[in-house]
Records
---
Amino acid sequence: GENVEQHPSTLSVQEGDSAVIKCTYSDSASNYFPWYKQELGKGPQLIIDIRSNVGEKKDQRIAVTLNKTAKHFSLHITETQPEDSAVYFCAASNESGGGADGLTFGKGTHLIIQP
Amino acid sequence: ETGVTQSPTHLIKTRGQQVTLRCSSQSGHNTVSWYQQALGQGPQFIFQYYREEENGRGNFPPRFSGLQFPNYSSELNVNALELDDSALYLCASSLAGLAKNIQYFGAGTRLSVL
């Protein structure tokens, strides 16, 4: 089955600086890669996703890059703000299968924005 | 907010008991997936329901079972509870088809097994 590794487990950055979180996956059949943000006491919130037919996607301060050859993808947050503090999860799945294998998640990155 | 609602928010049970958790999917979504999130870990896929049938399953024993109803809401049942079942249980809804894995999560049910 799929295995997703996520680094770092904790990331502390100064407000206004950029943050980068990296993930690797093992199954070359995976073709859908979402990123979720989870705040304390809440469920994961989808913030951006990318499919394997593109290498980069951007939405305002958030961007995701994908390297299919190396099987890794990254989340980039620019101009970080205090409300970006949360736990971020990467995930991978194969959308092409007839059944459902669900999303395979990394272990999460606790992002701390220092004022 | 995603529109996915789960009940109850918190639950305390004793080892060996049975529990039922409930989920209402986002309007227009016909597929429901359940995940278990242990403290400090990422969510783990339990199973998915589509058209009232189990459509895929992760590495969980048969004592984890589910139902989906005609209105697309769903239940997760866990029999013979074990201490390791203590976790946040998340429900996610999606739309079948090419977007089936664009999943929107509820806030979860926190289960404590004593």
---
Amino acid sequence: GAVVSQHPSWVICKSGTSVKIECRSLDFQATTMFWYRQFPKQSLMLMATSNEGSKATYEQGVEKDKFLINHASLTLSTLTVTSAHPEDSSFYICSAREPWDRAPYEQYFGPGTRLTVT
Amino acid sequence: LAKTTQPISMDSYEGQEVNITCSHNNIATNDYITWYQQFPSQGPRFIIQGYKTKVTNEVASLFIPADRKSSTLSLPRVSLSDTAVYYCLVGDNQAGTALIFGKGTTLSVSS
């Protein structure tokens, strides 16, 4: 199946700094990618939909000025957590779909990025 | 997107068959039923997907009754490595919209 990668796999940063997380579709082009956040012992929560060449669509309650998403190419989407605070510490997961796939319509998930803000 | 309800947790022993049932009473005509598996600190992994009746692959079976208001994921002869969280998702996958996750079922397999 298709592969989605994320970099870095884990990152520790100081409060007030910004962190960029990359999501890449390795063997397919993805016009749309999705960003999720997962706190310990909780389910995945959709943050935003990243569209290549246009602005991201954010879910209600997600601050678009804090979580900057850039989908500059068909294989790369980035999530930048600006002015990070300890409460932003979480597991961030991206996913992507092949644009013209057939059933089963699978959404491929990256391995996740563990962000710890101290 | 249709909301799903599944047990919070299940326990099993190695070698047993495990069936996890998911309720999705307001499933729409275009919705597919998809199950994902997630291990701690990893991204979810696709297990199986179906629209109606029964689907089987090398790791699981998915049973869907005629009214499609529920589905059952069947894992044959589980092992310790099947300990994970299992998510049932319902949505119009063909439309390409994001998957919305419910709480999932934590399966614990003991020896």
